[in-house]
Amino acid sequence: MRKRPLLVLFFILFTLSCLIKPKKSPIEQYIEQSGRNENCGVVQGVLSSITEKENSLELSIKQASFWKSKSKKYFIKKILVYLKKESIQEELHLGNQVQVVGSIESFQKPTNLGQFNEYDYYKGKKYDCKMFADRIVIKVHRKSKLEEEIRKCKLQWQNICEKQLPKSQAGVIEAMVLGEKSNLDCGIKRLYQTNGIGHIMAISGLHISFLGMGIYKLLKRLGMNETGAVILSVLTIFLYGMMTGFSVSAVRAIIMLATALFARLIGRTYDMLSAMALSGMITVMYSPLQARNSGFLLSYGAIIGIGCCYPILKKTFQSKSKLIDSILVTFSVQIVIIPIVAWFYYEIPLYGFFLNLLVLPVMSLLLASSILGIFSTYIHPAIGRFLFGTVHIILRYYEILCKTVIKLPFSNLVIGKPRKIQLALYCIFIVSILLFLAKKKKRGLFFLLPICFLILSPIPSHQLEVTFLDVGQGDSIFFKSGKTSYLMDGGSSDVKQVGTYRILPFLKAKGIRKLDYMIVSHTDRDHINGLIEILERVEKKEFRVGYLMLPKILNFDHSYKKLEKLAEKANVKVYYIEKGMKWEKEKLKVLCLHPNKNFLVSDKNECSMILSLQYGFFRMLLTGDVEQEGEKEILSHLKTHDVLKIAHHGSKSSSTEKFLEKVNPKIGVISCGFNNAYGHPHKEVIERMKKRKIKLYNTSLNGAIDIISDGKKIKILMNRKKK
Fold it and tell me: What Gene3D superfamilies does the database record attribute to this sequence (predicted)?
């Protein structure tokens, strides 16, 4: 450390950056204070990036101002704008002064465990807010010539990839070589990530060193002097960074390679860890929030593994075998990044270590074939086709490898989000073993390192845990007793792909490898569209579900049949639940109070499955979307409950006076969307709760709500508190 003062300074800056709480900009404060309807207005600024999707565009506008008619103007550093292609009247160019009209919103902080932190991610990229625009007008037709030429070049190269390769493979190469992930196939992306090779799709040191050192060596062979070769090589990788969007890993690699080349130029020794520290300091000083970014931590973690762990392991084994050397490098990286992967993705690809040994050796060939294939297409398409043929074979090889490995037992260990104390113990264990190896060089200690993975294993709970997830305008309730897990409903009418982006990440963050019971109260889409997504994943062997529980009713619809078919395809057993059925697992008693199989009404909500949960002396009533008729059906045999899930998102047609009198809850929980179009929860319902002194929690205000009980006491945790 004494010989590397930059490394010490980097760790100090990194720690401070992790502790910094970002200050809200004036525009964020305005959005927070105003209602949704008051956020419509005009943004004017300079167009700095354009990303094309299938039917829409993502625009980045910098040096912008926001205003409403005759109101104060708010300065915006950078804003992300979503716009439909049909709204564009003329061709857009980088550097254009544009004016967009639409509704601005703040980036969302996670309201559920496991949910993506949109706020930290985009604030780390210097965005203040986002806008959903209705129209755009070019006010000044100026262009940023260099940036526009780079964008055109990138679009041409994308076009070449799409002509030469199948769609899914073109998307991989565009991500891998051009940093363009908008065309990346979701299935392929998941396949690579699940198997622990998702990093190959990121612009990293391999890409930058391949291009930069390749240019440098070529120029030297052509007779250029050292100064010219270094300057042109650094300029090339800088322009490449511009083209690929200056991702965290790309910036790190560019600064490190530039440092290596300039060290060579002035006759100084290059130190990898000092160069890494320099790049890290520049990154966190520019944007402190990048220190919390998964890409930053994985990229720098890999370098720390190679720079700190690998030399110790190499000295310990003293092997001249290239295979052993490759294994030690890969292992060194893995032991550093595994806790980072667990913290952000909640699962560890068990065979990822071995898979990387098979994937990485051909990465250089894949990159070379891709880049040369793009350039040679300009010379003659046949040469391009030949080189892209190599690309096709390698990508097929990767795909076959991944699909084979994912079928192996325990291919992916879902361990949940580790606690901070677990991460601390992991680090202490690893550092202790490495320090001992450095002094004693006893190979036997090396085999203790895999034990550290046990430190990250889920800590078992011996209480009832219930979570009302924040799914917007919808319902999803998770509960767990011992090792048995349940999910009652999972859908939303305003959050897109709620199963993929909220429910599944939550389950994985809780360490749920298999959902024992998936329960459907009724088949409205705001209760089941996320469950459908999960069952589709089960069919692809990406998740497991034991049983699907459906209400035993006479008037089932298309959605009911769809769930049955999906369960059959996914090999999930279906149970049909009716009034009076009960079961007990690990101290938790579950009793179905409704519906009676002969209960027939036209409204699906009235047929909602109602479950009573009992854990020791603690009782909770889960009501779906039941309304007055359904409530009347169960009044005669209804007992008091500590917690009531307020039916139908707090609709005034539910939770009648008689029903509340009979249940007599201490706590009520409402699941609904913020500022939803239905006005849920209705004022009448809130008044009824206040009248009975029922403590009310609302997912739209409090985020996900955790209720924990040992059978006597009740503990309530909220994911956020909205002012």
Answer: Ribonuclease Z/Hydroxyacylglutathione hydrolase-like
The answer to whether 402 and 355 have CB atoms below 8 angstroms apart is yes
CA distance 116 to 108: 9
Give the pair of three-digit tokens for residue 531.
């469950």
Could you give the 3-state DSSP secondary structure of residue 25? coil
Residue 113 has pLDDT above 50, yes or no: yes
Class of 464-718 in CATH? alpha beta
Q: Residue 331 carries which side chain, given as an amino acid letter?
A: F
Helices 205-221 and 363-379: crossing angle, nearest 10°?
60
Residue 441 has pLDDT above 70, yes or no: no
- In angstroms, the CA 707 to CA 333 distance is 39
- DSSP at 590: E
Which own/partner pairs from 430-439 qualify as long-range (CB within 8 Å, at least 24 positions apart)?
430/335, 430/336, 434/308, 434/309, 434/312, 437/312, 437/313, 437/316, 438/312, 438/315
Question: What residues contact 77, with CB distance under 8 A and at least 6 apart?
Answer: 25, 62, 63, 64, 126, 127, 128
> Is the domain defined by 34-143 classed in CATH 3.40.1370.10?
no
Band (pLDDT 50/70/90 cuts) for residue 417 is very high
pLDDT digits (tens, 9 = 90+) for 665-723: 999 999 999 989 899 999 999 999 999 999 999 999 999 999 999 999 999 999 875 54
Reported as type and span, the H/E element at residue 171 is: helix 167-178
Q: Are strands 97-105 and 40-52 parallel, antiparallel or unpaired?
A: antiparallel
Question: ∠155-157-158 over CA atoms, to 5°?
Answer: 60
Q: Where in the chain is the domain with CATH 3.60.15.10?
A: 464-718
Task: Examine residue 681 and say whether the peptide bond preceding it is cis (omega within 30 degrees of 0).
Answer: yes
Separation of alpha carbons 481 and 558, rounded Å: 33
Tell me the C-alpha distance between 719 and 702, whole Å.
6
Q: What's the pLDDT tens digit per position in 618-653? A: 999 999 999 998 999 999 889 999 999 999 999 999
Percent of the chain, pLDDT > 90?
78
Write down how long the chain is: 723
What mean pLDDT is predicted for residues 571-585?
95
Residue corresponding to tokens 């706590």: 667
DSSP letter assigned to residue 419: P
Longest dimension (CA), the chain: 95
Q: For 41-52, what is the mean pLDDT?
A: 94
Q: d(Cα 116, Cα 329) in Å, to the nearest integer?
A: 30
- 189 burial (CB, 10 Å; 0-12 / 13-18 / 19+) is middle
Phi-psi map region of 254: left, alpha, beta (phi>0 left; psi -120 to 50 alpha): alpha
